[in-house]
Amino acid sequence: MNNTKYVWLIGLVVTLAIVIVPIVIFGPRAEAKRDNPQAHLPQPMNHTDHTALMTGPYETGADVTKACMDCHPEAGEQVIHTAHWTWESEPIYDPDRQEFVTTGKKNSINNFCIGVQGNWPACTSCHVGYGWMDENFDFSNEETVDCLVCHDTSGMYVKSEGGLPAEGVDLAAAAQSVGSPTRENCGSCHFRGGGGDAVKHGDLDESLYFPTARIDVHMGEYDFQCITCHRTENHNIKGRAISVSVDNKNQVYCTDCHNETPHNDERLNGHTTSVACTACHIPTVAKKSATKIHWDWSTAGAEDLEDNAHSYLKIKGTFTYKKELEPEYYWFNRTADRYMLGDEINPSESTPMNKPKGDINDSTAKIWPFKVHRASQIYDTGYNYFIQPKTVGEGGYWTEFDWDQAARLGSEATGLPYSGSYSFANSEMYWPLAHMVSPKNDTLQCVDCHSESGRMDWIALGYEGDPVKVGGRKIDTTSQAMSQEGDQ
């Protein structure tokens, strides 16, 4: 009888185990922290009607600024210390050069319109100030800050050479309309970088003025303005672009609103230590308007070719544009190297102007999507460095079509010696993609990357093969998290 009792107890234990163990293993877990980005959005500012406050008349833009500073006396001082005003970074130590350097639109070159120096009136039409016509512009004069370029909501304010208001602009009407910056304010410059709509960035163009959700889910479905993400304090706007910056300070992150692991599927969350959100959520850019992917300056000046904005212009050369552009993918730790004026090049190779830093062994790097713009641009064959030519105005290439003269005048503006001989060499410029985020149903699927025809070149990224088959990288995610917290 005792044996029967023990058999019964053993049977009960086994039965309970059969019932309980599967519940423990497969039953509902504690609910993961819900991704609730709306809770982190900034509150919109209350609008103040300025109609009765800014009566005018105003003869100049500076007159409007003086009137603004009657009520906002601190604004001018704040603006003149921002990168939007200086077009130049604070000194940053460059370990490769073993010295402090500054970078920015003011003193760097690119492979689009090449550079500002010597070409000030045309380039500075997008400066947040008035009257930057040459190297003598006074960056300490608060009264030349342009309040209207960021705050006009009339839709009628336009800037011209040197950042001055275009002829015929009703300054009083613009001043009376001021409000919080909209996509139209930011886009008037940033959507047209490089000389026209959609030219430069790939993920910024005029389709974002009134986008559908397919073009950008944040702006199209939720009506985000640029400052929803690029938040501003004391006129200092968050954000960094490696076209002009090399550090990772004052940056914008998806995790400003989203969780680090926002998905319901843990297989997807497992990607977030090595794959940037944008790599999956921006499958293509230039969704409505084609973007420039190649520019050959060496063909400029031809008399027998007909001008066409998307294939050839006599003043600029030959172009290639692409719509629905698939990104290229590289490791990126949100910092970059930077080609500086005077750096020697190897003319037989393509020179990266702003190569992203990071690799598979860098715990702070993730796989990012990029638009890469490739070009052929003028260089000095004697000194083996790129030339920043004068293109605009008297003696400029766009007037005289004389590369030698453009090189001499450009070198005078930059202070670099010119050997007297030139040719053209290849370059490439990287644009990390962060806009034109697709709705979740349009994001990349597993087979878009993990298949024989997938878009990822796993070998080039440093893997032995597809990570699904060979395993992911081995990194210390603690240092990655600490780096991100420090950056924020």
Describe the structure.
There is one protein chain. The protein is α+β, with helices and mostly antiparallel strands. It has a domain at 195-487. It has 17 helices and 12 strands. The chain has helices spanning 2-26, 61-71, 75-79, 83-86, 120-123, 148-151, 171-176, 183-190, 217-222, 226-229, 266-269, 277-281, 397-400, 403-414, 446-449, 467-470, 477-487; strands at 92-94, 99-101, 232-233, 236-237, 291-296, 312-313, 317-322, 328-332, 351-352, 366-380, 385-386, 422-432. Strands 5, 6, 7, 8, 9, 10, 11 and 12 form an 8-stranded mixed β-sheet that branches. A hairpin with a 4-residue loop joins strand 10 and strand 11 (385-386). The relative contact order is 0.11. Residues 21-31 and 482-488 have low confidence and may be disordered.
Give the helices and strands, then pairings:
Elements lengths: L1 H25 L34 H11 L3 H5 L3 H4 L5 E3 L4 E3 L18 H4 L24 H4 L19 H6 L6 H8 L26 H6 L3 H4 L2 E2 L2 E2 L28 H4 L7 H5 L9 E6 L15 E2 L3 E6 L5 E5 L18 E2 L13 E15 L4 E2 L10 H4 L2 H12 L7 E11 L13 H4 L17 H4 L6 H11 L1
Parallel strand pairs: 5-10, 9-12
Antiparallel strand pairs: 1-2, 3-4, 5-7, 6-7, 8-10, 10-11, 10-12
Radius of gyration from the CA trace?
27 Å
Secondary-structure element series: HHHHEEHHHHHHEEHHEEEEEEEHHEHHH
Mean pLDDT metric = 92
**Percentage of residues assigned to helices:** 10-25%
Uncertain runs with pLDDT below 50, 5 residues or more? Answer: 21-31, 482-488
Structural shape: globular
Helical stretch tally? 17
Structural class from helices and strands? alpha+beta
Largest sheet: 8 strands, mixed
How many β-strand runs?
12
Ends apart, CA distance between termini? 72 Å
How large is the share of residues in beta strands? Answer: 5-15%
